[in-house]
Amino acid sequence: MRHGMDKGKDAFCDEKRYSEAFFATKHFLALYDKKPLLPGHCLVVSKRHVVDINELSPEEFADLRHILKSVLPGLAKVYGDCKSYNLVIQRGKPAGASIAHFHIHIVPRKPNDAYANDDDIYKDIDTKANVLPRKAYLAEVAKLRKYLRYKQKAPKGL
Ligand SMILES: [Zn+2]
Question: What is the second-level CATH architecture of the domain 15-144?
Fold first, then answer.
């Protein structure tokens, strides 16, 4: 393999994002979405730069299951009053992906939330422009870290 061949240069490759994670496993980070559609909207992002889900190794797939098993119940507890959620993967621009680096959107749902009976949630993911103010963003990260007992270690160089 050529050196750096699978290195991308997108926002999810930036190791600075590691310091914002509210949970992490060996191969994945859980990040709060900067433009949440609903409270609790977050992302599970591969640490390694891959674009397509089929590029994940068997070990990474097992680890993906591992992080979802921690994050989904955590989100249900912190934001939901039920176990409803949308799990969305967008692959490619026609599917709405704005960052070509494997990530899964998780949007906790409640009866009668802002997207009740509205499939626009799939259209709005990744494109809705309401950026959460920094302070509010960090408050959500802190809430989830506390619930998931995640102790953040700053990445090298930070
Ligand atoms: Zn990347």
Answer: 2-Layer Sandwich (3.30)
